[in-house]
Amino acid sequence: MNLIMLGPPGAGKGTQAAMLAKRLGIPHVASGDLFREALQAKTELGLKAKSYMERGELVPDEVTIAMIRERLLQPDCDEGMILDGFPRTIEQAEALNGLLAEQGKTIEAALFIDAPEEELVRRLSSRWTCRKCQAVYNVISNPPRERGKCDVCGGELYQRIDDEPDTVRNRIRVYWDQTSPLIDQYRHEGLLTTIQSEGGIDHVHEKILSALRIA
Ligand code: AP5
Ligand code: MG
Ligand code: ZN
Questions:
Q1: CA distances in angstroms from 97 to 72, 100, 103, 107, 174, listed in the order given
Q2: Domain coverage including residue 61
Q3: For the whole model, what pTM was predicted?
Q4: Shortest-distance ligand to the CA of residue 149
C-alpha cells in the first residue's frame, strides 16, 4: 500500500505515519526527517536545505525530488510506503506520479490530516523531537516516559528551530500557498480522505484505520 499524508504543519502527519507504518509493516518516508538527518550529518544535501528549513520555506523542488527518488528506489519500499511531507507542490506531485509509474506502482490513498490553526501553533510550541530517531513527543498531549529522553531509542529530545512561533506562522502560510492546492487535486482523483486530528492521538489513529478499512 502506498499512502500519502497531507496536511498543515503540526496536524499530526508524522505521529500518525509512524503508527501506521508500524501497523502495516512498511517504511515511513518523511521528507523533513530525511532533510534533518542530512543536516545533522552535514552532507551537501543538508547544507542545501538548511537555510530554507530554518526560515520555514520549502526546499527547491529539484533538490527534494532527487532526494525522494533515491529513497523510493530502496528495496524496503517495494511492498509499499507511507509518504509524510512529500509531495508538497504540484510539481512534486507530478514527479511522484512519474517515479511510481516507472516502478509500476500507484497511490492508494491521500490522507489529509487537518486541525485548526491555533491548535497547530499550540502543538508545535510544545513538541519535542528525538535527535537520534526523530520520534515526536508533546509535553502536553504525548509526553515521553522520562523527561528529555526518547522512549524508543533513549536519544536526547530537542525543540526544532522551526517550531519557534514566527517560523510556524510562515510554515502555515507556505502550506496554504504551495501545498493546499494538492488537496483539491487528490480529491479530483478520488484519492482523498479527510481526517480531523482532534480527540487525542490514539483516537485519530483509530479513525484512520477505519477510513482505510484496516481492521
Ligand atoms: P516537516 O518536517 O515535514 O514539517 P511539517 O510539514 O511542517 O510538519 P510537522 O513535522 O511540523 O508536523 P506533523 O504534521 O508531522 O505533526 P506531528 O506529528 O509532529 O518539514 C520541515 C521542513 O523541511 C519544511 O519547512 C521544509 O523546509 C522542508 N521540507 C520537508 N518536506 C519538503 C518538501 N516535500 N518540499 C520542500 N521542502 C520540504 O505532531 C505535532 C505535535 O502535535 C507533536 O508534538 C505531537 O505529539 C502532537 N500531536 C499529534 N497529534 C496530536 C493529537 N491528535 N492531539 C494532540 N496532540 C497531537
Ligand atoms: Mg512531521
Ligand atoms: Zn529516539
A1: 12, 5, 10, 8, 23
A2: 2-115+179-211
A3: 0.97
A4: 3
